[in-house]
Amino acid sequence: MFGSDETGEIDNWQYNNTKQNFFASAIIKTDFEKDFNINFPVQTTTQVSFDYRKNEYKELDTWGQTLPLNPPFTLSSTQGQHTALDFRQPFVTYGYLVDQRFDFGNYGGITGGLRTDYSSSFGAGSKPFTFPHFNGYLNLNSFNFWQSIHNVVSSVKLRGAYGKAGIQPGPFDRYPVLNLQPTGNEVTYTNQTVAKNTNLNV
Fold first, then answer.
1. Is 136 buried (19+), middle (13-18) or exposed (0-12) by CB count in 10 A?
2. What element of type H or E holds 167?
3. Is 32:51 a contact under the CB 8 Å cutoff?
4. Residue 119 class from Cβ within 10 Å (0-12 exposed, 13-18 middle, 19+ buried)?
5. 76-99 burial string, b = 16+ CB within 10 Å, else e?
6. Of 114, 179, 193, 195, which one's alpha carbon is 20 to 30 angstroms from that of 51?
7. Where do the DSSP E strands lie in the chain?
8. pLDDT, tens digit, 9 for 90 and up, residues 94-139
């Protein structure tokens, strides 16, 4: 392990990962014929949502060397205590989702919407990233012309969709770090030329 002698060693690895998630959504549905007495077979569905997520990872790795001959054998009873890693990684993201859907009887429908996300990976001054999506469908068997071949093919639905998505980078990927570089028998540090993963779009 860490110690170079054979006098005994205690390793203590502590991991803690805390996740928080809050999701609120409001959905409004209307029917033109039933709600507004309009002789037009249209139903609408409107969704507005808010999503908040927080994750905090902590790790503390300690070890002690040279144990006594008599118990108790605890970390504090070793002659030397050391910290191998003391690490904390917070991450917060939140966003809004808006969707609007129209259904025209049994004939077809269209849906459009977008999601806008903020991420702590890009810092407090970063602008949100927006991802739109659209889709539509058409039930050919609901039209009168389909009745002539209804006995051959009972149902056909055509659907098309477009969407844009993204992948979150790591919590600290936007920060340049020092790279290790061997120089002769020693190790030197060099500056990183660019930050990592600064684009969410794929």
1. middle
2. none
3. no
4. buried
5. ebbeeeeeeeeeeeebebbbebeb
6. 195
7. 9-31, 42-65, 80-104, 108-119, 129-139, 157-163, 178-183, 186-191
8. 999 999 999 998 899 999 999 999 988 887 777 889 999 999 999 9
